[in-house]
TrEMBL record:
InterPro entries: SGNH_hydro, SGNH_hydro_sf
SUPFAM superfamilies: SGNH hydrolase
Subcellular location field: Cytoplasm
Protein name: Platelet-activating factor acetylhydrolase IB subunit alpha2
Entry's EC annotation: 3.1.1.47
Gene designation: LOC115019258
GO molecular function: 1-alkyl-2-acetylglycerophosphocholine esterase activity; platelet-activating factor acetyltransferase activity
Keywords: Cytoplasm, Hydrolase, Lipid degradation, Lipid metabolism
Source organism: Cottoperca gobio (Frogmouth)
Signal peptide: none
Boundaries of every SGNH hydrolase-type esterase domain copy: 44-203
Catalytic activity, reaction form: a 1-O-alkyl-2-acetyl-sn-glycero-3-phosphocholine + H2O = a 1-O-alkyl-sn-glycero-3-phosphocholine + acetate + H(+); 1-O-hexadecyl-2-acetyl-sn-glycero-3-phosphate + H2O = 1-O-hexadecyl-sn-glycero-3-phosphate + acetate + H(+); 1-O-hexadecyl-2-acetyl-sn-glycero-3-phosphocholine + H2O = 1-O-hexadecyl-sn-glycero-3-phosphocholine + acetate + H(+); 1-O-hexadecyl-2-acetyl-sn-glycero-3-phosphoethanolamine + H2O = 1-O-hexadecyl-sn-glycero-3-phosphoethanolamine + acetate + H(+)
Membrane-crossing segments per the record: none
Gene Ontology CC, one term: cytoplasm
Amino acid sequence: MSGDALNPAAVAQSVEDVHGDDRWMSQHTRFVQECKDAEPDVLFVGDSMIQLMQQYEVWRELFSPLHALNFAIGGDTTCNVLWRLQNGELENIRPKVVVLWVGTNNHQHTAEQVAGGILAIAKLLTSSLPKAKIVVLSLLPRGERPNPLREKNAAVNEFLLSWLPRLGRAQVLDVSGDFVHSDGAISPQDMFDFLHLTQTGYRTIAKPLSDLLLQILDEKPEEQPASLI
């Protein structure tokens, strides 16, 4: 498994302020501040795939009622999420479930390295939040037509399905299966830019995710299985 410090995708790293407005750090600081006041049952962490979900009705309808926080920043890699979680975004909160969705922006890393980076985040979450369950969402296919990045994301998912069950309190929820049509194309009705989801696309993934979260939240501690895999 590639989830150790020798893996470049598992090395915590902040985002360099190349544009000069320090927006990334400002968002991180806001999340750290939110930790001081909020008592979430569900924490969402990741990149723009999680961040943009908050802009759609599906968030207000299905996830906000679960006392959810959204700690996601567009463009983040596994390295950036690791840094944020190690620098205050888990302080003072004890969510029952963490939803993690990150990895599609790790362009400089191999599929095995990306999966190792996601595994490193899951390990950090299980050690920092010993009572929380971790739900890792599979990476989605991307691009209108078949391309190497689709193949890479599919390979990441295969590694995750093999590795994550060993953590005990982590599982993969595969949300990738409904977006590629029989001709190999992805519809702009699902992904407006063939990467980010539309409202229709979010509804496709939201139902299975919502069902799983409700199942976990409804479990009594003595009824919780050792593993959800």
